[in-house]
Amino acid sequence: MASPAKIGIVTVSDRASAGIYADEGGPAIVDYMTKALVSPWEAVSRIIPDEREGIARTLIELADAEGCCLIVTTGGTGPAPRDVTPEATEDVIDKPMPGFGELMRQVSLAKVPTAILSRQLAGIRGRTLIVNLPGRPRAIAECLDAVMPAIPYCIDLIEGPYLETDPAVVAAFRPGQKPKG
Amino acid sequence: MASPAKIGIVTVSDRASAGIYADEGGPAIVDYMTKALVSPWEAVSRIIPDEREGIARTLIELADAEGCCLIVTTGGTGPAPRDVTPEATEDVIDKPMPGFGELMRQVSLAKVPTAILSRQLAGIRGRTLIVNLPGRPRAIAECLDAVMPAIPYCIDLIEGPYLETDPAVVAAFRPGQKPKG
Amino acid sequence: MASPAKIGIVTVSDRASAGIYADEGGPAIVDYMTKALVSPWEAVSRIIPDEREGIARTLIELADAEGCCLIVTTGGTGPAPRDVTPEATEDVIDKPMPGFGELMRQVSLAKVPTAILSRQLAGIRGRTLIVNLPGRPRAIAECLDAVMPAIPYCIDLIEGPYLETDPAVVAAFRPGQKPKG
């Protein structure tokens, strides 16, 4: 039996990393993945401050040393001076995946006009897909609902583990085969 | 009482800057802001040719020396050889704000299929939000109707002045508080 | 009478270029253009492997030496390690045209959730518009249906030949004039 797929979950927040308040984004992602995935997986979690170099270093560690097939970040994607998660992500990816940010902004825009202020992006580093998510738990779930159906096939294409979802939660789509169910 | 918020309005046009025809884009933006904003503001206007370095210099001057919290440009965003406003904007911003261009193209696309030819972008330079608008007055208003609701909160986040809008014209949205009214 | 407009059609595929299977994307584009265009044109076709430098060289040759007003590529836009068509396109364009990729992903997304995995982009090199299309013939037609109405006017703006379409197939739009019919 294959070893479980590793998923990196990176909370980027000065205050959460300093213990000033509790990390809500990271646990929201763990909850989501627990419900969505039926194939074996394990979380590799980090809580780090809004520092471009430190974020980049963490993404590289989770991709290259830990071998995560997927890394999701939460926080640091707005326009404020300390928001540098997209820049750090850009620094470490080989290939941008512009469709993720476009779709996440589009679904958030149906809820709030300030969705256009989110600078979320995604990209590929080697065999790892990295996706920026927003900071608020409700917005995290909305964004994952939108992009998660495409993620297992994306990970197939970059030669990662075969992720299976619970079709009642996320209808993962793989072209050329019927949705799992 | 706070000094009025400065808004840079940059018309980029070889012909308007040479006096060959009247600038229509700049006055259309002034009219729009006059109707939309109820907090004190003043326009800092420029009319300049389609030259990448000159546009970049003007944006830097309005952001760094004049202290504008918002700069809007009009013109120079198409595919023609002289259209270089997005390149000049890219040259001076620290952070791209991809959601603005995506949304403006989307609303324009509901009107004309050539909306995809617009290369409008937006980004942050220090404490200044810079937004490219199209050249035609009608398209300017359509684009501002789409993005203006998010602009006051964006300027809050980059530590600029508190902009208040007339909710009958623009329903500015700030998360965590009810729309002003 | 003007010489026919040259349109570059570049199939990017390791297997098609090695003769392992037949190129389907290139002929699908030729068929589409044959139906869509009523003004004289000729195809300049290439089938090449998924190599970034070779793709870039081919795009330059078709733009600068062949004088194509439009180059469309098919294949190599996904997240897989060998998919480098967008990177090669980025290497040779002067100006990005982000609206093309955004719209193509949006129309494909109405069909399949994995449309966000497409990294298609477009841009201008001198007097040539370069547009990445997907690999599958059905997806090619969907994407061309979406972007083709804007292409003749784009080519006018970069001082290329006047392309006329069959309005029953593609309703080319030129601002300030009624659709041809």
Taking the alpha carbons of the first and last residues of chain A, their distance comes to 22 Å
CATH third-level topology of chain A: Molybdenum Cofactor Biosythetic Enzyme, Chain A
Please, how many helices of chain A? 7
Strand content of chain A: 15-25%
Overall pLDDT of chain A: 95
Describe it.
The structure is a homotrimer of 181-residue chains. Chain A is of the alpha/beta class and 181 residues long. Chain A has a single domain (5-157), classed as Molybdenum Cofactor Biosythetic Enzyme, Chain A, CATH 3.40.980. In chain A, 38% of the residues lie in helices and 18% in strands. The first copy, chain A, has a six-stranded mixed beta sheet with strand order 2-1-3-6-5-4, sandwiched between helices. In chain A, strand 5 (122-125) and strand 6 (128-133) form a beta hairpin. In chain A, helix 2 packs parallel to helix 6 (137-147) and helix 3 (52-65) packs across helix 4 (85-92). The longest helix of chain A is centred in the first third of the chain and has 14 residues, at 52-65. The two termini of chain A are 22 Å apart. The model of chain A has no long low-confidence stretch (mean pLDDT 95). Chains in contact: A-B, A-C, B-C.
